[in-house]
Amino acid sequence: MSSRARPIVRAALACLALGGCAPASRARTTRVPVTIAAAERRDVPFAIGATGTVEAIQRAAVGSQVGGVVVRIAFHEGDYVQAGQVLFQLDPRPFRATLDQVQAATSRDRAQAESARLESERARALFERALLSQAEWDQKRAAAEAWSATVRADSASVMKAALDLEYASIRAPVSGRTGRLLTREGDYVRAATAEPLVTINQARPVRVAFPVPASAAPMVQRYRGTRPSVLIRAADADSSAIEGHLVFVDNALDPASGTLLLKAEFPNRDDRLTPGQFVDVRLILYVEPGATVVPAPAVTRGQEGAFVYVMNADSTVSPRPVQVSRTEDELAVISAGLRPGERVVTDGQLRLSPGAKVMVRDAPGVGP
Questions:
Q1: Alpha carbon distances (Å) from 323 to 305, 326, 332, 334
Q2: Mean pLDDT, rounded, for 96-107
């Protein structure tokens, strides 16, 4: 073999060793990385979200019904007090002296009234035997009646003096937590003024007031008789939810805001809620059993409506029209178009087309 033919032979042998000199193989199809989740069947609550404000059920501005000098304050600012507990003690000596005075006057007048009554009885006997004139009999009778009226007035004075002495001990009208003290020992307080000595908020239980849109009013009216549950969380904290019940539905919509005012009641035994606090509210009207749900990001909106990408057994995806009845938290409730167990794409839809091959990054469930 000539030296010119040897390169040609070597090339032919190399071609045969590599399986022939066929055209280069086609590039492999690129798989789109996606995240998927399985559709699940769950009991899903129907809830309305709102922002609410904590309110005290009762708020009392404690004042004084009598004037006097404060000699003792029987609590500290911020204490929880019981209804009937003494809060302030005014100097009782002037009231006790007044009571003693009117009691003594009553005893004196009662003795005078008894004497006048006896004289009236004797005068009556003499008048009936014609031994006393009509004028004298009338005079004795009038004197007895006047002294009897004086005794009744004295009794009223005794009662008022006793009440004033009792009012010298200023008591809590309701149970609750006290606010800032507005007086100090040694201060003179006036009777029946508009300025309170302290305020008390009844914080066990408390209520949360919140508005719902007018469109939700028919549903609220439909389920109000079942005492729907209400869950709240502090607006600026990630603490656990607090559960209460709906207790009040206003009888008219607010024409200015187009909302309906509702109130829920909470035991608040741990004092986590403070009047004036803002909270996030979820009113749960009912629970839908056995609903088909997927993560809300799985649903895409197109010109022809909502659809999801369903993952097939061969790792391809197909668009599927669905009907979404509502969204609850991070879940979309599917009323038609999807069965529990089918896998849908929750992330990466923008890079997909019908029949595209996908590569699953992870496959979480719908959620806890």
A1: 8, 9, 10, 6
A2: 95
pLDDT greater than 70 at residue 23: no
Per the structure block, which two tokens stand in for 234? 């502090």
Q: What angle do CA 117, 120, 124 make, to 5 degrees?
A: 140
For residue 284, pLDDT over 90 is answered with yes
Cα angle at 219 between 218 and 225, to 5 degrees? 105
Q: Residue 51 pairs with which residues in a beta bridge?
A: 280
Tokens describing residue 198: 């302290």
Cα distances from 50 to residues 57, 157, 238, 344, 350, in angstroms, run 20, 57, 17, 31, 33
- pLDDT, residue 361, reads 82
